[in-house]
Amino acid sequence: MVWLRREDHEDRELRWLRPVATPSRNSGGRRLPEAEDALRTVFQRDRDRVLHATAFRRLQHKTQVMAAFEGDHFRSRMTHSLEVAQMSRGVARALRCNDDLAEAIALAHDLGHPPFGHVGEEALHEAMAAHGGFRHNAQGARIVDYLEDRYGHGYGLNLTRAVRTSLLKGRIPDGFPLSPDLLPKGPLPVEAQLVDLCDKIAYLSHDLDDGLRAGLFAEAEAGELRLWQEAARSAGTEQRQRVVSEVASLLIHDLVQTADVSLGNSTGNSTGSSTGDAVLPRVQHGPTMAVMAQELLEFLRVRFYRSARVLGVMNDGAARIRRLFDSYLAHPERLPEGAQRRLTTDGLERTVCDYLAGMTDRYLFKASDAL
Ligand code: MG
């Protein structure tokens, strides 16, 4: 027999992964127990479920930085998520961590983003101030646990605990309706840390590219950044695409080298399901690279994320979110059927918030134009 069964993948993981990594036999399980698949590990199945989710397809028309309607070649949340998945797989594999888990987390990491990025997120958080607030990470967990109701069993995509806990990066607003078993937050799998760093590497490099494409700064200005200079030197060219891709490579190689040392051969509590004493080592960039990455981030903040052109579009989107929020509060009968069914369980405000957060940029435009 030549083909690989699930058990073969699982056995291979145990031989291959470093002790701190998360084998799929240590996934923490699913809320609703399921029969195992003959071919795929639990994390490979989680990855496939995320990829087939409606919320994932909507990422295609959600803003990363440049609104999706401003040009065909800017990153959307979906292309961003795919870039993060590709980097996370590579980094996890290089470090002998679980690349299937990393890929599943990466594909799901931005599912909870509302239309119009962080400005849209702020608008929803303010509108929900008295009702548990809003944050995209928490919303991501809510989507996979509940809102993405594909199978009608009430457990959403019924993902493994390792993937679900990995979506809860950062602060969760008080009173945000998460599945009770996710709180209090436990330690995250090491793969979640790797994805988080790959998320930053992906946006630092692709936003440099998109900012240049949008003409918000010139190559000569980017050329003053130390990381750009390092990349040009290392690539042996000033050619823009080569330099941008070398920026990503330098960050990835630095991460792998630094993380390899800090992860060592120690074991950690990697499922997030037990309360052992072992504390996972923190994964980060080396000090020189951390400084250069921070310099690039500051540059992008000033010249790109907070530029008048980007903020103008985002603020208009946020104003549309606020108008629609008030309109649905006053007229819940205008909510679509799926949302109407959740009104009694979730309450009016949360139902409206979930509905608006799920919208794509262009759907939000259509809905608010129709007011
Ligand atoms: Mg991201």
Compile the SSE list and pairings.
Blueprint: H1 6-16, H2 42-51, H3 54-58, H4 77-94, H5 99-108, H6 117-127, H7 136-147, H8 161-166, H9 190-213, H10 219-222, H11 226-235, H12 240-263, H13 287-305, H14 308-330, H15 337-346, H16 348-358, H17 361-369
Helix pairs in contact: 2-5, 4-5, 4-9, 5-9, 6-14, 9-12, 9-13, 11-12, 14-16, 14-17, 15-16
The structure holds magnesium ion.
Feature tags:
mainly alpha, Hypothetical protein af1432, 17 helices, binds magnesium ion
Structure description:
The chain has 371 residues and is mainly alpha-helical. The chain folds into 3 domains: 168 residues, Orthogonal Bundle (Hypothetical protein af1432); 118 residues, no CATH class; 60 residues, no CATH class. The protein is built from 17 helices and no strands. The radius of gyration is 21 Å and the shape is globular. The chain starts with 5 loop residues before the first helix and ends with a helix. The relative contact order is 0.14.
Give a short overview.
With 371 residues, the chain is mainly α. Helices cover 58% and strands 0% of the residues.
